[in-house]
Design goal:
Elements lengths: L3 H24 L1 H26 L3 H33 L6 H27 L17 H27 L3 H29 L4
Helix pairs in contact: 1-2, 2-3, 3-4, 3-6, 4-5, 5-6
């Protein structure tokens, strides 16, 4: 594939620079910021090259880039929120605003994913195409329904619950809920990737 080699190089650069930035945060904080910016740029390039490599055309590339971006935001966001929740367990006097903000952002991302799911399935988006809403009854139906229920609807409810518990400063409960969402959102990401690469459908 034309874009596969640049994708691999960008991914390798992301991993290497991100690891060095973590070390720099402890040793020389002045250089950590620029390194983190380079790592983020390499991550964005990885997504773009991946979409170009696997998108199968201009419209398919754009759709896959959107899908990869929201999957990245959801998976990274839930890990960040869960890790932040742990800080409240060891530093109880921290204000609740950051966790509420991050939980709300995660709720928004999962909501966008749900809207995109309806749009993708409703239009038969993906390299394989298909009839509108045909993915719900086709050969990939089991995985599509699992993606919807386990990877989108359930995490959306849990995100809402995490916001509400954080607002009442029930930080242990909020962190526990975010822990649950780490598993469900990660499972949803795997399902979305599997359905795309296995059946050629965007979900």
């Amino acid at each position: 594939m034309t874009w596969d080699a640049p994708r691999r190089a960008a991914l390798l650069a992301f991993c290497a620079v991100a690891a060095l930035a973590l070390v720099a945060r402890r040793v020389r904080r002045g250089v950590a910021g620029p390194m983190e910016l380079i790592a983020v740029s390499a991550g964005v390039l990885t997504l773009a090259f991946g979409a170009l490599a696997w998108g199968g055309g201009s419209f398919g590339t754009l759709g896959l880039l959107v899908e990869l971006s929201v999957l990245t935001a959801a998976t990274g966001g839930v890990f960040a929120a869960m890790i932040l929740g742990h800080w409240y367990l060891v530093t109880p006097k921290l204000p609740e605003a950051p966790l509420i903000l991050l939980s709300r952002a995660l709720l928004a991302v999962v909501s966008v994913q749900l809207v995109l799911f309806v749009a993708w399935v409703g239009s038969g988006a993906g390299p394989a195409g298909g009839a509108p809403f045909g993915a719900l009854t086709g050969e990939a139906a089991l995985f599509v329904w699992l993606r919807l229920i386990v990877g989108l609807v359930f995490p959306l409810i849990v995100c809402w619950a995490a916001v509400k518990t954080a607002q009442t400063r029930s930080m242990e409960s909020a962190t526990g809920l975010l822990y649950i969402n780490v598993g469900t959102i990660a499972a949803g990401t795997i399902l979305a990737a599997g359905v795309y690469f296995g059946y050629g459908l965007l979900v």
